[in-house]
Amino acid sequence: MTRIDADVLAQIPLMEVDKVTFYKRDEVTTDLICCDVVIANEVWSFHEELIGWDLLLAHLENLPDFREDWFAAVSQPPFATSETVAFSR
C-alpha cells in the first residue's frame, strides 16, 4: 500500500474496528510511527510516511474513547518500541 484514501478508509468501518495499536520502528537515525488496525482478526498495518496518514488518524479519532494522547505515549522515549493501544473493544 502506498497511500491511504477514501477507498481504503471505506474498508475500515469504525463499527468493526476491534483494536488500534500505535508503535515505533527504529529506522537507525529516526523512528517510524506505525499503526495496526485489527478488524475481525485481520491486521491492517500503516505508517506515518504513507500519503493520507492524516486521513487515517482523522478517521480513527472518531472511535469511542479513542486515546487522544497516543502520540505523546508512543513518541517517547526515542528509539524504543513504546507500543500504545489507542482503542480496544
Task: List the SSEs and their pairings.
Layout: H1 6-10, E1 17-26, E2 31-39, E3 42-47, H2 53-60, H3 70-75, E4 84-88
Antiparallel strand pairs: 1-2, 1-4, 2-3
Salient structural properties:
four-stranded antiparallel β-sheet, alpha+beta, 89 residues
How many whole angstroms does the radius of gyration measure?
A: 13 Å
Strand residues, percent: 25-35%
Strand order of the largest sheet: 3-2-1-4
Number of strands: 4
Mean pLDDT: 92
- H/E element sequence: HEEEHHE
Biggest β-sheet description: 4 strands, antiparallel
Poorly predicted runs of 5 or more residues: none
How would you portray this structure in words?
The protein is α+β, with helices and mostly antiparallel strands. The protein has one domain (6-88). The protein has helices at 6-10, 53-60, 70-75, and strands at residues 17-26, 31-39, 42-47, 84-88. The radius of gyration is 13 Å and the shape is globular.
